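Section 3.1: Structural characterization of target chains.
Under the original work plan, the team committed to producing a structural model for every single-chain target entering the pipeline before any wet-lab resources were allocated. The record below documents one such target. The sequence was received from the expression subgroup and is listed exactly as submitted; it comprises 208 residues.
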Amino acid sequence: MKRRSLTTVREESPPKSLCSDVTIYVMVTTTAVLSYVNSLNGDFVHDDIPAIVTNGDVVGSNSLKQLFLDDYWGMPMADANSHKSYRPLTTLSFRTYQMCRCRNVILKLRTSPKMKRRSLTTVREESPPKSLCSDVTIYVMVTTTAVLSYVNSLNGDFVHDDIPAIVTNGDVVGSNSLKQLFLDDYWGMPMADANSHKSYRPLTTLSF
């Protein structure tokens, strides 16, 4: 008696639901709005002013070489009064935005009829095969840039306002509730407090 062979049944994945996609977008948007709604009326305050508004490394009055020799506030790392907070890539991102006005460029590209026509008539071209050598070169360049950028801060420690922001901040060390974290400023003080810094960065605090 021959045994009948069983036919394999192909399982089809359920079709994507537009509703589920919309739900994800709504959740992400809601999280972003609820996280930063308290800072909508904010402006540069306290240490943000010397770090960005009057920082020569950001506004372009200092050379690019000097940017990598200065701390986050635009003071030379070798200076005895330096904050020793070394974030050159962050400062460089501020400077790039200041120079290029990226937001205006993006808006112009999006509203350009020429760009719209080009996007509709672009011919799909085959990309050349990836080379392992080129990938390794990119990784080496990125790693080298990171090391050279932050080598000056290897012997650093938490200083100045980093101590209340991280070391003694109840929202970071866990002595405050998660709900309180979203009600406090970057330094762990309630946003409603008159003495609050009004610097609201809950997602950064949450990452700490």
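Residues 57 and 65 are 9 Å apart (CA to CA).
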